[in-house]
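User: Please work through this fold.
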Amino acid sequence: MQAGDADTNATVAGSLLGAYLTDTGLPGHWVQHLRDGAWLAQKTKCAGSLLGFGGTYDPTNDPDVLIDGGKGAFTPEELNRRYDELMCEVGRRVNDGLPLPGSRGPSGKGGKGEKDGCIVC
C-alpha cells in the first residue's frame, strides 16, 4: 500500500475487502452501482475455482478467454475505421508537435525531433 496516493490505496483495500467479504458482505450502496456486477461475480467464482476454493470452471465455455475476448472478428469496415482513426491521431500528434506513442524523440525527453512522425509501414 505504498503507491503514494489515496485513490490507489482505496482501490487495493476495496478489492481485498470485496474478495474477502464477497458481494453479500459489502454495503448495498457499494454493490448497487457496481458496473458489470454479474460478470465480475462470475469471474470471481472462476478465480476461486482456479485457486482451489471450490466450484468449477471450464475455460472452453468462457468467451472472455478467446483470442478476441469473445467479441468476434472485426469486419473489413471496422478494421478500416480503426485504421483511419489511428492515422488521424498520428497526424494530429505530428501536427501538434506531440511525441507519437512509444516515441521519445532524439533527446529522450519526448517532443518533436527529426524523425518524430515518421511512420514506416
Observations:
- The longest helix spans residues 76-96.
- Confidence is low (pLDDT under 50) at residues 110-118.
- Residues 49 and 78 are 36 Å apart (CA to CA).
